[in-house]
Amino acid sequence: MRPIDPARLRACFVNVSKREREAIPLPDLDAVDWEALDYLGWRDRKSPALGFVVIELDDQLVGVALRQAEAPTRTRPQCVWCEDVQLPNEVVFFSAKRAGAAGRKGDTVGTLACSGFECSANVRKRPTLAYVGFDLEAERRRRIDVLGENVRGFARKVLEG
Questions:
Q1: How far apart are CA 93 and CA 112, in angstroms?
Q2: Is the pLDDT of residue 72 over 90?
Q3: Is 27 inside a domain boundary?
Q4: Of 115, 108, 112, 104, whose CA–CA distance to 151 is shortest?
Q5: Residue 126 covered by a domain
Q6: Looking at the domain assignment, is residue 19 inside a domain?
């Protein structure tokens, strides 16, 4: 992912009002390892149910505000974005208002994602050896590609509003 300045970061959110956009708490952008990210994600420290992701989609930035569901899942789910089967972190259900008129009417989309948006780190870990001769590096690259596809697919669903 390419570095983003604070003004561009705020301006890219597609499913919030202008007032909500100005209130989004930004992460410490100087501490971000941009080369190790497929998307930028962070949680609001003051309102832990809120999360924010910024995705590069067709050379545009798409920011999406998310809300974690209040009810916990009954079973340990798998992240839809990184598809990590090792489950090194908590996975929760997030909903997001759709962009535009659909979102203003209350239409939402949902996804199961890593609670702290650890997906980029999860897919870059060395995978488990599946069999003798298994190409671990090819599998790692495949997982990185799949994460990108899954996150961009979610952004497209939000934009379909």
A1: 4
A2: no
A3: yes
A4: 112
A5: yes
A6: yes
